[in-house]
Amino acid sequence: MKKPVIKLRDEIARLQEQLKQAETKEAGRIGRIALRAGLGDVEVEDSDLIKAFEELSARFRKATGAKEAAPGAPQGNTRTD
């Protein structure tokens, strides 16, 4: 049974808002951990931090035996904002 386009758009908007909230929550968590680890006092380029986080992510994925991220999960994000 097909859903009307308006219902699909509403569902997409609702899911995008949920994703935004989840990402904000995770960003806060990771930020607090980074500050506790002393990264707030380190002057480093965003690109260097991104590379270090990617290496850390790969290390933990390898340690848990995960060969791939969850389907649809971002990999190798190079945003600098």
Automatic annotation (TrEMBL):
This is Conjugal transfer protein TraC. InterPro entries: TraC. The lineage of its organism: Bacteria, Pseudomonadati, Pseudomonadota, Alphaproteobacteria, Hyphomicrobiales.
